[in-house]
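Thread: Newbie trying to understand structure tokens

Hi all, I'm a second-year student working on a class project, and my supervisor (Dr. K.) asked me to get a predicted structure for one chain before our next meeting. I've only ever worked with sequences, so writing a 3D structure as a token string is new to me. If someone could post the tokens and maybe explain what I'm looking at, I'd be very grateful. Here's the chain:
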Amino acid sequence: MKIIPASELIINPDGSIYHLNLRPEQLAPTVITVGDPDRVSAVSKHFDRIDHQVQKREFVTHTGSYQGKPLSVISTGIGTDNIDIVFNELDALVNVDFATRQVKTKLQSLDIIRIGTSGCLQADIPLDSFLLSSYGLGLDGLLHFYNAPHNADETMVHHMFMEAVGKKMSFPIRPYLAQGSQALLEKFGSDMLKGITVTCPGFYAPQGRQVRAEIINENYLENLADFQYDEHRITNFEMETAGIYGLAKVLGHQAISCNALIANRATNRFSQHPAQTVDKLIELVLDRI
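---
Reply by user tm_fold:
Sure, no problem. This is what the structure looks like when written as tokens:
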């Protein structure tokens, strides 16, 4: 069996993985990801107990239990570049034997739930509501570096998007599509809104914001918001979901993205109490775990 070289999988002298600084025994099989390192404690304050607290750079992890269920919460920072690090290292923690540097014969699938903030693209969706991403539409390019072909559903939705929207707009890269875990969508999303979440490689021009620098796509937000195929429509913007869904598929994990909609780009409104909205989403997700 192939041995993974030290240059490809970096293990710290204490037996922890390079960026996350975690050892395999410090990770639970259910993982909540948050972007903001300060949000980790906002989740773990609800735990029955905290067994491990680890921090390196923007990656903060608390592992313990909630109502008796083992649970980890980890901050990823912003963007799919960080998702690439976090997901590959989470996978290595459960599916690579650090002593032999070989992939384990029996692979483990993690349940990974993102709790994040997002901006809505539809005027009819109220501020401070919660949305589960049925798909992530990636404008970042991360998945093009992996062998991650679209499945049949992804292929159809992606084709319809490119026909309806792609021809109207100038994208610096080729968009990709990745579907969320159907099992987790059913478990968490019975009463949540659902939609296609656009994952962008930046916060300003990539999300249609123009402060001083001119953006290249006229009617960018309107063209995205107008897309609908069957029950699928583009509902919101953020910076991680498509990478999460794509890498979860590549690595064999189950992932969903739960979004607190704190801005409405169609109406130019921002939540008056975003922290409270995020706290409510945290409590909702924990109760459903």
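A couple of things are worth pointing out once you decode it. The first strand starts at residue 30 and ends at 34. Residues 1-108 form a domain with the Rossmann fold fold (CATH 3.40.50.1580). Feel free to ask follow-ups in this thread.
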